[in-house]
């Protein structure tokens, strides 16, 4: 009759420890379900098999958490099994005990169902699973910690499963934590919450898909600038700010000390600011800032000052020689005394040289280098000119140098003479030292006789 329920029984006890001199009838038998739903109406049963004739038995049901107040009562007038219909709430969960006593008779001690009671589980069907992220998913950047919680609107005794891009991950906790995120942690996250009423009835709630995008912080930007002469004759600095990595879009700011000169939002990793300038005037210390919502990154500080090309233009050279003192490579250097953005041109016999064929030109921050092998084609008068890269209306030339094989070999002969002279000097010096040492030895030997 009570097969769906858990049965708690015990052997009879003739007396009760609280009433050692009183008669005691048999322990009551408790019938109670093990698993119930929150809010459901469940029936509890209790009966005493041996009791004095013509007695009314009073039954009370208690939760072990509160043995002072029964949650239901029943009086049996004819010895029938006691029944109590109870609307289940969360406070009913726990260990249940049934108490039986003779109605209005304190001479017979009350008895209790088995001391181990019935463990009674209240289940609420799980509902409303949803994912909550900390920090908010809109502000996730590489290297940050990410905690995701699978919250529910309702439900007790819940188990959890997590899926990333459709694949289950080995985590059955309410929280899924990533201590240091990478770009690979981007994806679609789903949690599934479930609980059981019994071995045959299960409740499941799936969260909606939570798309996680781990953003890439911006790297330290680089700053550079070039000068442009505008059609109206005025000058402006085209300041380029670029970063090598970072999720888009990026907000670029141009700073002069702490003042913001301009702000531009770009869907790529670089931008250009145009700032009017005055030549030969200090325009301040500029800096570029890049920000995509995480932590702003700043470039080094650069002085914005443009000095036109001016002063003397000097041309020097050096060369490499073979073991026989023959010139094989010639390097010429062109340098202007001042100028922020100088542009150099090389000439042979008054003709502008191109960076091809028997010559090769290299531009460096402070000068320009011309490399060549001296042949009849590359012989003649060389000179260089310096001009402003942003204004080529005027230029300053260097002196002209005659470069031929004969001239260079004559120079190498002079060098060879100098080297031979130095060698001869060393030979004479060493010989003189030896002679002086020999004379000193002979003098010492003669003195000792």
From TrEMBL:
Statement: the UniProt record of this protein carries the keyword Glycoprotein: yes
Transmembrane regions: 415-438
Record keywords: Disulfide bond, Glycoprotein, Immunoglobulin domain, Membrane, Signal, Transmembrane, Transmembrane helix
Residue stretches making up the Ig-like domain: 28-109, 125-205
Cited Gene3D superfamilies: Immunoglobulins (2.60.40.10)
Protein name: Ig-like domain-containing protein
Organism: Denticeps clupeoides
